[in-house]
Amino acid sequence: MIIDAHMHLSGTGWVRGKYLRFVWKMYVTEYNRVHHTNKTVDDFKDMLTAMKPSVVDPEGDGVIELMDKAGVDKAVIFPVDWEAVTGPPKVPVRDQNKAHADAAKKHKGRFVPVCALNPTRGDALDIAKEAIEDWGMKGFYFMPASGFRPDDPICFPIYEKCVDWKVPVIIHSGKEIAHWDYCHPFRIANVALMYPELKVVIGHAGTRIYRREVIEAGIVPNVYMDFSEYQGFWRLQPDKFYHWLRDVIDACGPEKVMFGSGFPNPNVLTPEAEWVKAIKEPKTDVKFTKEELDWVLGKSAEAVFDTK
Predict the structure, then answer these.
(1) Contacts of 257 (CB under 8 A, 6+ apart)
(2) Spatial separation of the C-alpha atoms in residues 162 and 140, rounded to whole Å
(3) What is the rounded CA–CA span in Å between residue 250 and residue 243?
(4) Which of the chain's ends, N or C, has fewer CB atoms near its CB within 10 Å?
(5) What is the pLDDT of residues 112-163, one digit of tens each?
(6) In what order do the strands lie in the sheet with 115-116?
(7) Pairing state of beta strands 223-226 and 111-113?
């Protein structure tokens, strides 16, 4: 069983241009370092647009095709609630969440839909209730870079409902368009310490900027992590990446670590099938047992998101 624990479906009008330009600039910089090219932001946009299957895929048909080619059995999918930073998108975040829930129903057994939510919204609890109780979504995704600290009391009502519903929360960590300090793994660990019955996932495992801190945060018993967007680290410094992964597994246990891609943007840099192979068949002197890799590639996500 292989599960990609961090993917995003995409649709027209889902994200404002301000955010897209920032993301493309960030990714094209990494692309140029890896491939020794001099691509521009517009070049990256063109590469993303040309990806097959298409990135604009709100029902997930193309993502399923990509998963099949890569040998990925299931994926955890969710949008991102950027409205507080970029302004309202053409398609409201509520509708984007519903699209992810609908995609999971269309492709039964392949997608685990999670609700993107900014807990500072006045109607956050209403959105949360609809997502879990009416649409069958399996957890929440918080983006602190949109202007809130994950350990701020304004988030507590959602965490309390997560405990009641027995669903996890994924919290973005690491670099983003704003508020990097809000995205520190230690803030996420604070949440786990306050809510020991809540499964808390550090999305992107801190990215490379917090890759050491995430190991310390991951020691908290109910903290988990996915290492989506680590493709650039693997490509640029494969030996350091595998040593880092070894350190994470040794410190936290393989059952706390989840494979993820961050689709779609990172897949321009590294196709899904190649990223799966890098973990499933690592070419390194660093040793991993089959049991450890089984946990990382699927069993951990299966347990966190209760996908059996």
Answers:
(1) 205, 218, 224, 225, 226, 227, 245, 248, 249, 295, 296, 300
(2) 8
(3) 10
(4) C
(5) 999 999 999 999 999 999 999 999 999 999 999 888 999 999 999 999 999 9
(6) 115-116, 140-142, 169-172, 200-203, 223-226, 257-258
(7) unpaired
Quote the pLDDT of residue 177. 60
Higher pLDDT, 4 or 40: 4
Q: Which DSSP letter does residue 289 get? A: -
**pLDDT (tens digit per residue) in 29-71:** 888 888 889 999 888 888 877 777 778 899 999 999 999 999 9
Dihedrals phi, psi of 61, to nearest 5 degrees: -60, -45
Domain annotation for the chain: domains and CATH numbers: 3-304 (3.20.20.140)
- Quick one: average pLDDT of 300-305? 98
Among 147, 94, 146, which residue's Cα sits nearest to residue 116? 94
**Full-model pTM:** 0.94
What whole-number distance in Å separates Cα of residue 158 and Cα of residue 75? 23
Question: What is the distance between the alpha carbons of residues 182 and 172, in angstroms, rounded to a whole number?
Answer: 9
Would you say residue 179 has pLDDT above 70?
no
* Contact between 128 and 169 (Cβ < 8 Å): no
Angle, in degrees to the nearest 10, between helices 156-165 and 185-194: 60
